Amino acid sequence: MLKTLVAVVLLPVTLLAGMLPARAASPDWNQKLAEAMPLLGHRNWILVVDSAYPLQTSPGIETIETNASQIEVVRAVMAAIDHSIQVRPVIFMDAELPFISDADAPGASAYREQVGQLLRGYPLIGSLRHEKIISNIDEAGKTFHVLVLKTNMTIPYTSVFIRLDCKYWSADQERSLRSSMRSTSHN
User: Is the pTM here over 0.85, yes or no?
Assistant: First the structure.
């Protein structure tokens, strides 16, 4: 009787488990980053985000679960950018991060210190409200590739948003080119 009861209880669970889609293994994020770097150029983005960052649906946005620490992933991304021949980082952070207290999110101060040290020497273009950055990413993902590397970080507003720009052609060079083009009449 006990065997029959166990079979009656386990049979539906077994059948249900067989109907659920199998969870695909996460790709090796380091390998994916290495494969993506030669293809990325100006106007592409790389995001290193906390674990609650939303899964966006714009066609150009690709999200990969790293199951790694935020600092580890930021360090790897910055190294990959530094070693590329074609891109340099334009970094944005959440405007909310400086206002997150350790009382509300233990470790917030330590994270700010660590990420600040890691990004020292890179131009931090600015901080924007989180919703504005997400909106910008969504818009960019309609035309350009956005690589989102999701970490195991559980402190809010810690994401690092990196818009890629051309390494071998500066904004000053572009302005000079455009000025020269305007001053020369082309009909």
Answer: no
